Each structure stands twice: as C-alpha cells, then as structure tokens.
Amino acid sequence: MGSVIAYRCEACGTDFRVSEGGGFFFDRLHCDRCGKAATVSHGDLGDIHLRFVKGLKTPYALARAAMDRDIRANYPGEPVGRDEYHALAEATLEPCECGGRFRYDAPSRCPGCRSTREAWSGGRVVAHYD
Ligand SMILES: [Zn+2]
Ligand SMILES: [Zn+2]
C-alpha cells in the first residue's frame, strides 16, 4: 500500500526520499508545519481504529479482510466515520518538535526548504512496503 519515492527538490537542490501511503497495520501522518512524517500503528490506536473498521462498508484492505470481518461482526463499540477517526487518531500524537501537529491531510515537504511536491522532480519509486 505504501511506497518510498526518490525526489529532487528543484527549489534548493536537495535529494531526498519520502514514504507515501500507510500500511495494512499503520497510518502515516505529516507535520502540518515542517512535513516530518509520523506513523501511528493501528494497535496503538486500539478502540479508535476498531471503531473505524466497524464503520467501514468494505474491508480496510484485502489482505486483512478476515480480520476486518471479525471486527465488524464482534466488536461492540460505536462505529466512527473517516473524519472523526482522523481527528481522534491525530489527538493521540504528541506535537512535532517544530511545534506543528501531525495530520492526515498535511503534505510531505522537502527537508531542505519545506517546499511541497510542485517544486520536485523525479518521483522514482525505490521501494514498496505494506
Ligand atoms: Zn514539524
Ligand atoms: Zn527544497
């Protein structure tokens, strides 16, 4: 579900890699100020993630369909939608060391100048992970 992608920033010349996408068992967020990535495991989210899976109409991922079916059938908690899930999960993370907050909808940023991908070239996939 996720990839590591190599970019060059045309604004400052930095070569760097960004990881994009979450995995089957974790989500990836970025700082809304500096773009630093943070991951949060579904296990650490506990009930927050179970409530989200409970509210899904389709499996979270095919590779874990059986587990998700079991959650939907047997988990007793109240389901939450995607927006509420994101807000609850964001609230579990400490602020970034730069003072920003980790958010699902914050973009990756160049580590050199904090530009976003409009300023980057390349985009070569160097690894996949799940
Ligand atoms: Zn930050
Ligand atoms: Zn840059």
Name the strands of the widest sheet in spatial order.
Answer: 2-1-6
Please provide the count of β strands: 6
Number of domains: 1
Share in helix: 25-40%
Order of helices and strands: EEEEHHHHEE
Categorize the overall geometry. elongated
- What amount of the residues lies in strands? 25-35%
Briefly note the structural class of the backbone. alpha+beta
Q: How big is the Rg?
A: 17 Å
Associated small molecules: zinc ion
Quickly count the helices. Answer: 4
Alpha carbon gap, first and last residue:
5 Å
Low-confidence stretches: none
Could you outline the blueprint of secondary structure elements for this entry?
Elements: E1 2-9, E2 15-20, E3 26-31, E4 37-41, H1 42-45, H2 47-55, H3 65-74, H4 82-91, E5 102-103, E6 120-129
Antiparallel strand pairs: 1-2, 1-6, 3-4, 3-5
The structure holds zinc ion (ZN) (2 copies).
